[in-house]
Design goal:
Strand content of chain B: 15-25%
CATH class of the largest domain in chain B: Alpha Beta
Shape of chain A: elongated
Largest sheet of chain A: none
CATH topology of the largest domain in chain B: Rossmann fold
Number of helices of chain A: 11
Shape of chain B: elongated
Number of helices of chain B: 11
Radius of gyration of chain A: 22 Å
Number of domains of chain A: 1
Distance between the termini of chain A: 42 Å
CATH architecture of the largest domain in chain B: 3-Layer(aba) Sandwich
Oligomer: heterodimer
Number of strands of chain B: 14
Structural class of chain A: mainly alpha
Chain lengths: 280, 323
């Protein structure tokens, strides 16, 4: 009657291996992170797009728009590159949201929830995989920036600290992305988030100094968490930063730590609560 | 006596913010090793009931046990005993079939070697060996469903939930899924199947619970039994006589009315006389004898059971009226 002709024999299933809950929580996280990383291998085009877009922006700003920028130190590349690194971290937010939303809508999240696996591993696996992807994207972008003439001069430890702050920002936005992916009802919300990512980056010190903006916008831009990370990265990479600015601008490194900590403090509990409330 | 595979008692659920309850007291009893159909139209609460039984959703009231284990009190133990196949094939589109099975095997805490071995077994069992190395995104609907069911069978669960497993499939895909489900049942798996297709419940389920949600009242079971019992419950057999000559219609109607104890319906165009009868075999004999005695030439004579469609419509209509 059909191509499926299974054998009606008594089914002897294997027995789960023993292990402590902690061990399985780590193993489940690794399995789920591995699943996402396998997606990268299966769909290299998407990865190329995700990494390629910031590189395209880099080239546009350096070779097309850079000429009209009044850059500190006279070389826009030096101030721009740390800003683009920051913006790439921001783009990770919608990437996380897409993944969470897709899994929820396709019923994959429900299937995970129906398994006797570690509950926290679903979010933890997402977090690990997204951080790995962002670190790779950042590495590629750093290489591209070096190729077009960006020069970090702050020494290896400072540079490592700058990379650490960038990834810390990404980690905080990860939780915003998970939360948004869980509360979103459909792809419309995703489009909205993607649409606002760009203006959000422009309303910051990523591309230009906030002091050059109208007063109110400048103040908002100065307090934008992206400004702090971008300014801290410039400082640590030994690149020239924007002149002027208020207290936030003067304490960029401290704020680049504080902002992500606050964001994680707010959105990680929200995301976890939302995940738990799927059973209501 | 082994515990019931599924036992639900007075399940109620009202989603926060929803105007009407989803479930208004659902009872279910499924002995081990059987297929139980949960049949109902859209919005009757079938999926809600399954989600509660599969620990994905908490009931507001009532209790439910899988294999004798309370779903609310011991969800982790229940999850070890169930397989869930939801309305959408919940498998990874990007990975191939084999990797899906291995990944879910690992998430079910099989050792890597066991997960791989089990994947091969299930690929064979669900006729997916040839497709094993292809990404799921290229699978047909029937193949996806089979892989989905294979994933749910990794630990050979005590109870398999199939939530509308053939919705959106073409006839070939449906046939594939049906044959996979029959094979599962032959190997002793208990299946709780939700469906809005009557023929599907009729084909696969030993017993059926009909779920209906009268307007604003929430889903509840309006009838339960084997497909035959459900047909019988609405008092359903009808005798139909088609006469050869239109002149005989009146005589035939008199015979059928006497046997049925009620006025027969006469359709002159079809030359047909019909009436509901309580006892199909007795009615058949008495009608034949009566028609022969009256000298009526019969072209066709049949006792027809109502289709499950008719049963279903009448049961759900009754629930609507009773609300």
């Amino acid at each position: 009657m059909s191509t499926a002709a299974p054998i009606p024999a008594p089914d002897v299933a294997p027995v789960p291996a023993p292990g402590s809950p902690l061990r399985w929580a780590l193993a489940d996280t690794a399995t789920l992170a591995g699943r996402q990383l396998a997606h990268l291998r299966a769909r290299p085009g998407e990865v190329a797009g995700a990494v390629g877009f910031p590189i395209l922006l880099l080239l546009m700003f350096v070779y097309l728009l850079g000429g009209m920028m009044d850059a500190p130190g006279g070389d826009y590349r030096q101030a721009l590159s740390p800003g683009l690194f920051t913006m790439t971290m921001l783009f990770g937010l919608s990437a996380t949201m897409i993944g969470v939303l897709t899994d929820a809508q396709r019923g994959i999240t429900d299937r995970f929830r129906s398994l006797p696996m570690s509950a926290g591993a679903v979010l933890a696996g997402r977090a690990v995989a997204d951080m790995v992807v962002s670190a790779l994207a950042l590495a590629v972008l750093l290489g591209a920036a070096l190729l077009v003439g960006w020069r970090p001069t702050g020494g290896p430890w400072s540079a490592a600290a700058a990379v650490g702050l960038l990834l810390l920002l990404r980690f905080s936005l990860l939780w915003v992305g998970i939360w948004l992916g869980l509360v979103a009802r459909g792809p419309g919300a995703l489009t909205a988030v993607q649409t606002f990512e760009f203006p959000f980056a422009f309303l910051s010190g990523v591309f230009v100094a906030p002091v050059t903006m109208p007063a109110v916008l400048g103040a908002v831009a100065e307090w934008n968490p992206l400004s702090s990370t971008a300014a801290a990265a410039r400082e640590l990479f030994g690149n020239p930063g924007w002149e002027g600015g208020g207290w936030v601008a003067q304490h960029a490194i401290a704020m680049a730590v504080l902002w992500p900590v606050v964001i994680v403090g707010v959105f990680a509990p929200l995301a976890v609560r939302r995940y738990r409330r799927m059973s209501r | 006596m082994p515990p019931l595979a599924v036992h639900a008692d007075g399940l109620r659920k009202h989603y926060p913010g929803s105007p009407a309850p989803a479930l208004a007291g659902v009872d279910l009893t499924v002995p081990p090793g059987t297929v139980h159909g949960l049949l109902g139209p859209n919005g009757a609460g079938k999926t809600t009931a399954v989600r509660i039984l599969a620990t994905l959703l908490r009931a507001d009231a009532g209790r439910a046990e899988i294999d004798g284990i309370d779903v609310a009190a011991r969800p982790a133990d229940v999850r070890r005993r169930i397989g869930l196949v939801g309305q959408y094939a919940a498998i990874d589109e990007v990975l191939d079939g084999r990797r899906n099975l291995v990944m879910f095997g690992r998430l079910l805490h099989l050792s890597p070697a066991d997960a791989r071995r089990r994947a091969e077994q299930l690929l064979e069992r669900f006729a997916l060996v040839e497709a094993a190395d292809r990404p799921v995104s290229g699978y047909s609907g029937g193949m996806r469903r089979r892989l989905d069911i294979a994933v749910a069978m990794i630990l050979a669960p005590a109870v398999l939930f199939l939530d509308e497993p053939t919705t959106g499939l073409d006839p070939r895909g449906r046939a594939e899924v049906w044959s996979a489900v029959r094979a599962l049942v032959a190997s002793g798996t208990t299946v709780l199947l939700t469906t809005q297709y009557l023929d599907e419940a009729d084909q696969l389920a030993a017993r059926i619970s009909v779920l209906a949600a009268p307007r604003g009242a929430g889903g509840r079971v309006v009838a339960e039994g084997t497909p035959d019992e459900l047909r019988a419950r609405i008092g359903g057999d009808r005798i139909e006589v088609v006469v050869r000559r239109p002149d005989d219609l009146a005589a035939a109607a008199a015979v059928v009315s006497r046997v049925a104890g009620t006025d027969a319906d006469v359709d002159a165009d079809l030359r047909r006389v019909a009436a509901p009868v309580p006892d199909r075999m007795a009615a058949l004999g008495a009608t034949l004898a009566g028609l022969a005695g009256a000298g009526v030439a019969v072209e066709d004579l049949a006792v027809r059971r109502p289709t499950l469609d008719e049963v279903f419509l009448r049961l759900t209509d009754r629930a609507e009226v009773g609300a």
